Amino acid sequence: MAKVIDQQLAEVLYQLTNQAKDKELAGLLDKFANYLVSSGQTQRWPVIADLYRQKWLNRQGILEVEIICARPLDQNYLQTLTDELTKLLSASQLIVKTKLDPEILGGMIIRLPDRLLDASYRRQLRNLQANLL
């Protein structure tokens, strides 16, 4: 239930600020902050702010992607992968974060906003083990 409320509050904040002029933003943000304080929901602010950021990025056609691999990726390969993902996802831009996790053994995991693509050797070995047993 809290997740739904956070998403609704993020949407309200987005709708309030989306068409606002620069000089109106401070007042709108003050009213929103006062609402959070008066309703005892200030602890929700970090989640609401993150959801708001995601909404703003999505509506701009910008997607955040995390690429997890066992070893650092070559910059040329990373750029090619980014370009292909941008086309595949029909995004105007990708924000790519890379993370090293030697436990995946090899391959990669690509975390998208709405799905996870797991092409790690660890997953492939687990699938093979499950099929053999």
Short description:
With 133 residues, the protein is α+β, with helices and mostly antiparallel strands. It contains five helices and four strands, in the order H-H-H-E-H-E-E-E-H. It folds into two domains: 2-59, no CATH class; 62-132.
How does this structure look, described?
8% of the residues are buried. α1 (2-18) crosses α3 (45-59). The protein has helices at 2-18, 22-38, 45-59, 75-88, 121-132; strands at residues 62-69, 93-100, 107-111, 116-120. It is elongated and about 60 Å long. The protein has 133 residues and is α+β, with helices and mostly antiparallel strands. The chain folds into two domains: 2-59, no CATH class; 62-132. The termini are far apart. α4 links the parallel β1 and β2. It is built from five helices and four strands. It has a four-stranded mixed beta sheet, with helices on both faces.
How does the SSE layout of this entry go?
Elements: H1 2-18, H2 22-38, H3 45-59, E1 62-69, H4 75-88, E2 93-100, E3 107-111, E4 116-120, H5 121-132
Parallel strand pairs: 1-2
Antiparallel strand pairs: 1-3, 3-4
Helix pairs in contact: 1-3
* Secondary structure tally: strands: 4
**Unreliable parts:** none
Rg, rounded, reads: 20 Å
Total helical elements: 5
Q: Can you write the helix and strand succession as a string?
A: HHHEHEEEH
Largest sheet: 4 strands, mixed
- Cα distance spanning the termini: 40 Å
Could you name the key traits of this structure?
133 residues; 20% strand; four-stranded mixed beta sheet; alpha+beta; 56% helix
